Amino acid sequence: MTTLPTPTHTYIDAHWDEHLERTRAFLRQPSISAQNIGLRETAALLRQWLEERGARVAYFGEEARPILLAEWDVGAPKTLLVYGMYDVQPVDGQNWTTPPFAAEIRDHPEGGESIVARGACNSKGPLMAFLHAVEALRATGGLPVNLKWTIEGEEEIGSLALPGFYHAQRARLAADAAFEPFWSQFTLETAPIITLGTKGVMGIEFTCRSGDWGGPREVLHSSLGPWVASPAWRLVQALSTLVNAHQELSVDGLPPLGTIEPEDEALLHKLAETFNAQETLTRLGAARFKRDRPPLEQLEHIEFAPALNINGLKSGYLGEGSHTIIPNEARALCDVRLPPGLKVQETFQAIKDHLARRGFGDIELRMDSGYPAAKTPLAAPVVQALIAAYRAHGYEPTIRPIEASATPYYLFTDVLGLPFAWGGLGAAAGSHGPDEWCSVEGLKALEKSLTTFLAAFAVQDF
Predict the structure, then answer these.
(1) CA distance 273 to 280
(2) What are the pLDDT digits (tens) for 169-228?
(3) Given 312, 332, 399, 443, which is the most exposed site by the fewest CB atoms within 10 A?
(4) Mean pLDDT for the chain overall
């Protein structure tokens, strides 16, 4: 039975004002990887704070957006590899009610007193919570485990350098398990959620250009539409063959669902008992699901179905007013969500072959990033330590097999051979959108729960 590290929690309470203001200072530092804004400065600030807390820190990867490796070797029997990210999404064109890098504290309709800032939820807030958890443990008896913390600045653009770093540094990154600190609650009153894995993701750019199939060599007046075909229509027609009438991925050779293990099925049955479709739709801001299904099937599809999403379409004239033309090129930026059982290269080839069989072999496909799903068994000690931490704080967690979003946890499972978990108490939301936020009380709860988790991990049997 895990007990709360009370002296450490008392330290967090006593130093809370400092922790809160340091977190806000970190959020005020822009670190937008897609636009290469502020990454080196953010890494330097983070390195300073890590070294002040006793870490040995080294840079890897690209100089403009380095990967940090922070290490605390305290001679403990157990070692935990931790993942973090310091980059964020752009804010251009979004309707924020406060400046996105002001990190203002205000009353939020969902979170109550909250920090509103880009990165508050995903993932500079959790990063700072772990930094302060380490500080609190070191100040009240010492770290109970050795830590190796890899922190990248490219997650939002596909973790470009991270795979090479993990492959090259296998020996240095050896550990008993891996972990990422992150929020797990919708509100501080709801049960925390433990998710045992994530889907993979692949980015594909589809391009249709005029050629032997038809279309104009140069942009034409649209009055010639009865004679000359449009690459824009051809691209739309090609994409429509990849999904069924319900916009579900329907590609030759790809299954409608990924691999569902018996343990997953049992967890899904338990989740289905309390699944509320209307509450879920309200939270998502959607009027209905793609299909009306029983709760178990809805859960199977969100967690184990692949999906093709059109992120953006570009062709011809998109400005104000009318400009009647037939374009000579059309592009679509898409992502494919990959459940367990679907591999990146095989899925890409299946989509390409599917289009060719239907007469769309001229459509160009370019994969710009991709990695597979990853999953850890419920019985893994790192998962059991997280469960024990939640119970010590008075919560019984809800356990899900797979998260619909993607994180490169395959680097833990496939490259390093490590079980992993992610979590911590606290509520936050709005990732990638305007008015991203994290609860102030939730941030403190996250710090405290992370110290409890590290204490629980130290005593787990492996």
Answers:
(1) 14
(2) 999 999 999 999 999 999 999 999 999 999 999 999 999 999 999 999 999 999 999 999
(3) 312
(4) 96
What domains can you pick out in the chain, each with its CATH number?
A: 6-196+376-458 (3.40.630.10), 200-258+305-371 (3.30.70.360)
